[in-house]
Amino acid sequence: MTNHTVLVVDDDKEIRDGIEIYLKNEGLQVIQAKDGIGAIAALDEHEIHLILLDIMMPQMDGITATFKIREQRNIPIIMLSAKSEDTDKILGLQIGADDYVTKPFNPLELIARVKSQLRRYVTFGQFEEESDTVRVNGLVLDQEAKQVTVDGEPVRLTPIELKILSLLMIHAGRVFSIDEIYEKVWKEPSFNAENTVAVHIRKIREKIEINPKNPRYLKVVWGIGYKIEK
Amino acid sequence: MTNHTVLVVDDDKEIRDGIEIYLKNEGLQVIQAKDGIGAIAALDEHEIHLILLDIMMPQMDGITATFKIREQRNIPIIMLSAKSEDTDKILGLQIGADDYVTKPFNPLELIARVKSQLRRYVTFGQFEEESDTVRVNGLVLDQEAKQVTVDGEPVRLTPIELKILSLLMIHAGRVFSIDEIYEKVWKEPSFNAENTVAVHIRKIREKIEINPKNPRYLKVVWGIGYKIEK
DNA sequence: CACACTTCTTAAGGAATTCTTCATTTTTAC
DNA sequence: GTAAAAATGAAGAATTCCTTAAGAAGTGTG
Fold it and tell me: Which residues bind DNA (chains A, B) (predicted)?
């Protein structure tokens, strides 16, 4: 997981430099480009393992650049954008980005996503099918298929329910407070979200538990929070 | 999630002191610095887990300080600023702050954000202190799962019971007076709490002892207090 | 654009559990 | 034996959690 090179493409030098600091701090090598043309040039000159690409750039915009890059090589691309509209998000992903981060972004989140993408890259320069399944008790979470099964039976979860359950399953055994769950799932500080989370917990229990009143998987720890029994 | 140290950087002593009161009230340790230079010095001297940084400071401004700090270590940074313009907000985040609070700020919101950042960092595995399990005799305390087992059997404890038992187990062998227990668990000076603690002790014994009348783990030291037998 | 459908959020009441207090009994030390 | 300390039991107060329901917001379809 070391010695990877990341190409940062953004027209704003400050942003490039800011990102570079974080990435270097993680032991990654960084090359900068200020637009799509420069990015393609950099791809010829260096062995790049991942691209951080701003969607709004002069000369050649990010989406067009994605096309050009994909024509050359199959490299993980993470898109950056100031726009938070879902339309852009979906468009970016469909066209070829492997992940998407909106500005202003949390640097830690960015690093996590970069690492996640790099992890899929192995010695042979191919993509490894990451084992994306988490198994706890009789519960199976397939992160790629975004599906959970209980004893083989698929469960139909809503997006938020899936996120909550994923969080709890990935860190099975650990207790998460309601605030913590809210922050991780909704990605904003929680103010008055107790019932909201509680209702979702109830819904999840309804779907994964035989007897929701006496849950087998999704346990409550009094005064602290919820967890998935390991 | 306890025992974290926050560095408060602001040129106004009143603001620093005000923030310090709130943070200390949450059990956090606080170190102050009046400018960027002082902040970097403090980083060398103390183990800091989070920085509250005013964006407008003499000598070295907050944004420059952010860069310098990031060069050294990857610590969560929350920016404070009197400016509420969105341009500044985005700039601050892009450059390296993990979160942003505008003055005048709501203390509760500030605390919520501080805690949120500390939690986020902890999950990323950066500074997870204290080993998660404490073993004494046949007693096992899993601090992550917030659970205690006696000879492998899980025990269902209430929040206060868990806190008391955790305290005694972590410092197994040491005797705690009733007042000491009360202060540590309730986080307020003990007034007339002798019986209150005694009742909880009794409840704990009921749950972890085979014969509460002749306790094997939770011993009383006459005239002094309670302890967990090592 | 109206319609049905799903999902999310909020509020409120009820149920269950837990906390504290007080009175009483038991144990301990001298 | 006596006084101080500790343990016990029971009851009301307080807290926390669960559940339901209703409306808001969003999505897809004809």
Answer: 131-230
Q: Residue A51: which residues within 8 A CB-CB, separation 6 or more?
A: A6, A7, A9, A39, A69, A75, A76, A77, A78
Which residues lie near nucleic chain C, judged by CB under 7 A? A 156, 158-161, 186, 192-193, 195-196, 199-200, 222-223; B 156, 158-161, 186, 192-193, 195-196, 199-200, 203, 213, 222-223
Of B123, B149, B183, the residue at which a domain comes to its end is B123
Q: What is the ipTM of this complex?
A: 0.55
C-alpha atoms less than 13 angstroms from C-alpha of A225 in its C-beta half-sphere: 19
Span B137-157, pLDDT tens digits: 888 888 877 888 888 788 888
Look at strands A5-9 and A133-136 and give their pairing.
unpaired
Burial class (CB in 10 A: 0-12, 13-18, 19+), B72: exposed
CATH number of the domain encompassing residue A169: 1.10.10.10
Which pLDDT value is given to residue B131?
42
pLDDT averaged over every residue in chain A = 75
Rounded to an integer, what distance in angstroms lies between the CA atom of residue B181 and that of residue B200? 11
Model confidence at B32, pLDDT cuts 50, 70, 90, reads very high
- Residues B159 and B195 occupy one common structural domain: yes
Q: Could you tell me the pLDDT band of residue A91, with boundaries at 50, 70 and 90?
A: very low
Terminal Cα-to-Cα distance of chain A (whole angstroms): 29
Q: Does A180 touch chain B (CB under 8 A)?
A: yes
- Say if residue B26 is in the same domain as residue B116: yes
Q: Answer yes or no: do A14 and B94 touch at CB < 8 A.
A: yes
Q: Are residues B18 and B109 in the same domain?
A: yes
Q: Nucleotides on strand C with an atom closer than 7 A to protein CB?
A: 6-12, 17-23, 27-29
On the question of pLDDT at B7 being above 90, the answer is yes
Residue A55 is which amino acid? Answer: I
Minimum mean pLDDT range among A44-58, A77-91, B198-212: A77-91
Say whether A21 and B96 touch across the interface (CB within 8 A). Answer: yes
| Interchain pair A15, B94: CB under 8 A | yes
Residue numbers of the domain that contains A99: 5-119
